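Progress narrative, work stream C.
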Amino acid sequence: MTDTALVSVVPVGRVLTAADRNARASGWRMTFFAWLAQNMAIGLTFGVYGTLITSFERTYGVNRSISTLGISLVLLAFALVGPVAGSVLHRISIKMAMITGACLSAVGYGLVSSATSMTSVLLCYGLLIGPGAALLGGMLPSALISNWFETGRGRALGIVNMPLLVAVAPLVSAWILEQWGLSTVFVVLAALMLCLIPILFLIVDHPEKKGLLPVGSNKSDFGSVKQPKSAPIGYGILARTPIYWGIILLGCVMAAGGTVMSIHIVPMAVGLGIDPGRAALLLASIGGLGILGSPLFGMITDRFGGVAALSLNATLQAVLWSLMLVQPTFPVMLLVSCGLGLTAGGMIASLSSTFSEYFGTANFGRAYGLFAFCSLPFIVGAPVLAGYLFSARGSYQSPFGGQIVAFILVAALGASLAWRRAHLHP
C-alpha cells in the first residue's frame, strides 16, 4: 500500500457549527473514557505487579525467576491478542471488546485473591488478566481515538497514553499490601475493574453512530486536514508494504530501548556507586515525566506528522543515551532520566498516529496489532541481551552503544520517510 493521503486546507476563520461543537465535545468525552481504560489496563497490571513480587515469593515459596513470570505472560497476551483483535476490529464493537477485557481482568483478579499456589496465579495472569488488559488497553483505546479525530489526533492520543496510574498504582498497592495483605490487593483490583464496566458502556465506537463526523473532517472546522476513508486491507498487503516495515522497525527499536533503560538504569547507577534509594529515583523520574511526554509528542505529531515526531524522538534518545555512557554525576543522570521519560512516554502516541496517517482508521487495528506481535522479541529480548553483554564485558558500554546506533539508524529512516511523505503530498 502506498502513501495516499489527500490534503486540503480549509480556510481559517470559519465559525464552528453546532455539529462541529458536538463532535468536539463527544470526541473529548471518548478521549477521557479511552484514557481511563488505558490507565486501568496498564497501570493496574504493570504498575502493581512489581510491588507484589516478594510477597508472591514468601506466600507461595517460589524464586525470583518464577515470581516474575506473570508480566512475561501479560506481554505474551498483548502480542497474541493484538493481531487477532486487529483483524476483526472493523467487524466488532470496540466498546464490547473493552467491556469484555474489563470482565476478564475482574474475574482474574478475583480468582488470584483466593489462589493457593503460584501456578494458579500465573494461569490467571496468562489466561484472564493478560488477555483482559490487552483488550481493555493497548490498541483499542487508540483505535477509538483514531475513529473520532482526524485533526488533533496526536494530541488526543497523547492524552490517552499519559501513564498516570503507572506512577500512582505502585504506591497505593504497596500501602494496601502492608496494611491488609496480598489477597486484599487483588480484591481491590477486581472491584476497580467492576466499577469501570458501567463507564465503558458510555463509549460510542464511531461518531457516525451519533450522526456526527470525526473532529476535523467537517469543512466548517477551521484549519482541518481532510483525508478520504480508507478501504480495509489484510495482513498480507501490510506484510508486502515496505513503508509499514519501516514504521514497525522504528517502533520496535524505540520500544526495546524503553524496556532496556527501565530495567537496567537502577543496577547501572548502583554499579557507578550511587545509593540504591537515589538510583530508584532515576526510574521514578522516567515514569513521572512520561506523563508529560505523551501529550508533548502528541502535539509535535499533530504539527509535523507521526514519522517526523518518531525520528525526532529517536534522535533525542540517542543523545540522552550517549550522556549515560560518560558516567555522569547523579544530578546529570537525573536530568537525563527526565529527558528519557519525556521521549519514551511520547513514543506510543506518535506511533499510533502514524498508523492512522499512513493506512487509515479502517486499518489501524491490523497495523497496530501486527506491531504488538512483532515488538515482543524486541521488548523481551533486548533487556536479556543487555544483561548478557554486561555480564560478558563488565560494563554497559556495549549494550548501550548498540542501542545508540540503533536509535541513529531508525532516526535516519524516520527522517527519510517524513521527507518522502512531505514531497509526495506538499
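Work stream C, second folded protein:
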Amino acid sequence: MGWLRDWFASLNAASAMTAPAPRASVATGDPVILTTPAEIEEALRRGNSTASGQSVTPDSAMRTAAVYACVRLICGATSTMPRQLKRRVDARTREDASDHSLWEILNRRPNVWQKPSQFVQMMQAHVLLRGNGYAKITRGVRGEVLALTPLNPDRVHTTQRDDLRKQHEWTRKDGSRFVFDQDEVMHLFGLTLDGITGVTPIRYARETIGLALAMEQHGGATFRNGAQVSGALKLPQGQTLGDEQRERLKGDMDDFRQGGSREGKVILLEDGLDYVRMALTAEDAQWIEGRKFSRSDIAMFFGVPPHMIGDTDKSTSWGTGIEAQTQGFVTFTLEPHLAMWEEAYNGDCLDAQRDRGIYVRLNRNALVRGDIKARWEAYVKAMQWGAMSPNEVRELEDQNPRDGGDIYYPPPNMTAPTGGNDDVVA
C-alpha cells in the first residue's frame, strides 16, 4: 500500500496557497480555520461558551453521558450493518458483485490503517458531532477506488462553484491548503440548510449540553465537599472565637463534610454554637430531576428514544415490546443515516457509466439477528408464501445450500399453477 504514502508525499511536495492564520481547537488541539464572516462573527461574539458558562465543543460534549450514549448507539448500529455490493442483472435479478474493487474497500480495508467498522464509526461520529464527514478518494489508473482516507472536518471548507459543483478546501496542520474537486472526496452529511454542508446537533443543542455539563460539575463539587452544602455556625450574642479556635473549628467542619460516609452522623458543637443551614441541598434544588430533563432533551436532538440511553421513567410512544421499539429506532433514527451512507457510496465512489448496474446496499435485516425467534418466524412465513426458498434462508444464515433446496412452496389456500414451472411444489 505504498501508493498512499506516495500520495501524502506528493502533497508535501506540491505547491500550496497561503492559508489564513489557524486557531487551536479546544477539542483536539488541531487548527480550526475561520473562513466565512459568519464563523468569524460567532467566534468573536461568544466562541463556544453558553449561558451556563460552559464551553461546549465536540470533545467536551462527549463527556456528557447522554451525548456519548447517543453517538455510541448510532455509530455502533451503523458500523455493524452489513455492506453489500450488488450488481443489477435485469429488472428482477440481482447478484453479489464481490469481484468489484469497491468490495474490498467496504469489507476489507478502506485505507492502510483502519478496518471497515472503525472507519464507519469514525466518519459517523464526525457527522453527528461536526455535521460533516469527509474522506479523500484515492483512485487507480482506471478510476477504481483504492482507498478512502478520512479528513478532519474541522480543517475542510466546502464551497459551491459557479458551475454548481462542490469543491473542498483542505487545510493541513502546517497551514497549507489543497483544493479537491467534488469527485475526489466522499462527503457525508445529513440535515442541511444550504444543500452544501450539514448541520450538527452540537451547535443547536449547545445550551442544553452546557447545562448538562454544569450540572455534572455541580454534582461533583457537592459530593467532593459533602452531601450537605455549606452552612453557618452561630455563637450566642456577645461571644467571639479566637484565631486558634476559629481555625480548629473550621478544620473540624471541613473534615466532617468531606466524604459521603459521614453523611447522617452527628457533630459536636462547643461553647453554645448553633448550626444554621445557608443553602439548599442538591435534592432540594431538584438536581436529579434537572439532570433527567437535560438527558431527555439531548436524546431528542439526536433523534434517539430516551429509553435507549437509560431514561426509562416514561414509557416510549414507539410501541410496546422490544421488537416495536427496535423497529422505531431503525425507522426514525437509523434510516436517514443509512440512506446517507448508501447515497455517498453510490454517488461519490461509483461512476455512473463505468459502474452501471452496481450499487451499495446496507442490509437492515442484520438488526434482528439477535432475536432468533422473530428471525425464524419471518423465515417460516417467507417460505410458506413462496417468497423465499430454503436455500435462500440458509444463505442468510451463512450456511451452505442443500440439495433440492431451490424450491418455492405455493402459498397456502392457493391453487397451484399448472405447467411450465418445475420449481413449484404442488
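The chain has three domains: 1-228+281-368, 230-278, 372-426. No further action is required on this item.
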